[in-house]
Design goal:
Blueprint lengths: L18 H11 L7 H16 L8 E2 L10 E2 L16 H15 L13 E7 L1 E6 L12 H7 L5 E3 L2 E3 L4
Antiparallel strand pairs: 1-2, 3-4, 5-6
Helix pairs in contact: 1-3, 2-3, 3-4
Length: about 170
């Protein structure tokens, strides 16, 4: 069973969205979650972790040092300068989690678990010659653009984990 963050800064939460709400969002946006509840819960947890990997791009700071997830946040604003209450879990987070969970649930290896090198050919005659596809990179790490797109209004300009805003 998922432990859903409700805006209080739970120390043991593992999701921003319940399974019931995730299924409703998936239906609304055309995403497919695993039909098995246990597998769907795992996908949602992984989707939550994927979203939280973008924490350095979110405005504000964590509400509590002891909270398990990146949200709720103090001092967070949307890209439109609207303040986000420190007891709120924005809907954009939930949508991003479901988008990422759909990818995990479909078996996509989002985070590369190998060195990223794919051998095109190998020759062993006297000396060893090895050539790689695409300069040795397979592109195994996947960016879930649907999730990132859902988060855009919560993100500030990011560079090396530092936050900065530019206003006119």
């Amino acid at each position: 069973m998922l432990i859903v963050e409700d805006g209080t800064g739970k120390p043991d939460s593992d999701s921003y969205v319940s399974l019931v709400d995730a299924r409703a969002l998936a239906a609304k946006y055309g995403y497919t979650l695993p039909t098995d509840d246990d597998k769907a819960n795992v996908s949602i947890r992984n989707g939550t972790q994927y979203v939280d990997m973008n924490e350095s791009c979110f405005g504000g700071v964590r509400k509590l040092l002891t909270q398990a997830l990146a949200w709720p946040r103090v001092g967070a604003k949307t890209t439109f300068k609207a303040e986000i209450s420190d007891d709120t879990i924005p809907e954009q987070l939930k949508i991003a989690v479901v988008a990422a969970a759909a990818e995990y649930g479909a078996g996509v290896d989002v985070r590369a678990t190998d060195d990223g090198k794919a051998i095109a050919s190998e020759e062993v005659t006297g000396a060893v010659a090895v050539s790689y596809f695409n300069n040795g990179k397979t592109g195994n790490t996947v960016v879930i653009t649907k999730a990132i797109d859902a988060l855009k209004t919560l993100m500030v300009a990011c560079s090396n984990g530092f936050e900065f805003r530019v206003y006119r």
